[in-house]
Amino acid sequence: MRHQLHRYFHKRLNHLWVKPVGYDTGIKIYNCVAKEKVPLVVRNKDCSSWYTCGPTVYDSSHIGHASCYVKLDILQRLLRDYFKINLVTVMNITDIDDKIINKSIQTKTPISEITQHYEKEFWEDVESLDLMKPDLVLRVTEHIPMIEDFVLELLNKGAAFKDEDGSIVFNIKEYGKLQNVSKANTGPAYPNFTLWKASKDNETNWNIKYPNGRPGWHTECSALASSVFGSTLDFHAGGDDLRFPHHENEEAQCCAYFSKSQWVNYWVHTGHLMQKSTKMSKSLQNTMSIRTMLKSCDSNTFRMMCLMSHYRKNMEFTPEFVNSGEKHLENYRNFLTYCKSVIDGKLNICINGDVLTKLLINSKEEIHKALCDDFDTAYCVKVLNNLINVTYKMINASRENLNRDLQGMLSLINVTNFVKHTVSVFGFDLDQTSVVKEESKDFDQLINILTEFRQNIRLAGLEKKNENLLQLCDGVRNNLNRIGIIVKDHKDKSIWYK
């Protein structure tokens, strides 16, 4: 009875989601089986399992793939760096598939040449997007015997049967755990799917036991993931388009293989990348390669866009949203640079340290609550923006320039450290993302001279209420801003930063 009370059951139709036993992270995460947010419990905080469905390497990856992998990268970083969960991550590479075979036939190019080319390109894209590489990468063609053993075990258990053409087909008995599926939409019975495809005349034989052929797409991930993590997997991730039928079929196979009701404890699905409210996909021919995108939108801007949209929600890729991502990043960089100028003594201020400290504490609490609420990074961005804007106002409202306010300075340092730490957890290094220019000390001295001269003209304009002089000063400031030099005016002093 105690054991039953300790476990959490959620029933949907004939399916149960069972709350795992282990370390409660304090996070509530959406569960597609339970159809609601549930407690996130990992079996072992020091070694938690995460499997991501990798690419089918027959073509270039597009930015729809990028949005999925960047969002998953953000979640992994949060679990590792913020919640201190040690994830062991695995990804497969599908290097044998119908699409690859068809491309090989159409282009008269060997399969290995196609897959090696596009896998190399994929890892280059991973690096350009600043994604963490998986701890373990499993290529399908390197593990064919192990996948075959998985299929034959299902056949021996009576969970599969041999089809007329020699293929092995999974015999579906229960379906619709991850997504509601009506039998009325699928015929008199749920659609069986192929575990092992028998070879055709124009295909490669893998010289294995029975029969000659290759694994079905759904079976690849099931066999590979279970070969590493066994009968229970903490996280299994991919885009929302994989939830059905791919992940549905994976769960069905592994539950049958291990004779249990639940294989994956938490399925993690990211929303689609959209253009004009239409999903981006190769079949619709509305895709953009990652390399093309990075020519006009750098990787950090794209990451910021993913951060600004909840991982489960669809994201519209528009020039306006790209611009918004750029502005957010620039605002963070400018804020940190500006605060550094203040801390370095270029501008003496007097601010209410108690008020700023209270704001910082509230911001920390709000961000923690948001991250514990299904990783709501979009709300975290709003909290950071509010913290930055209020801090800006406090600095600019200061009228004390005679002595440095050390208590206020300490509060300001705490704010800047928190902002830097928070964005670093999301995968940003603002010191590296700023535009690097080849500049010498002479350049800095030149800007110092120009800024000081401009400030003297500005003060003269203010004293004599000369609008023409003030407009000229505004023009110099605006022109400097266009080349990345930010000038801020403060009573009797102006400061600049890059």
From TrEMBL:
Domain tRNA synthetases class I catalytic: 48-323
Matching CDD domains: CysRS_core
Protein name: cysteine--tRNA ligase
Cofactor dependence: Zn(2+)
EC number of the protein: 6.1.1.16
Stored Gene3D superfamilies: Cysteine-tRNA ligase, C-terminal anti-codon recognition domain, HUPs
Coiled coil: none
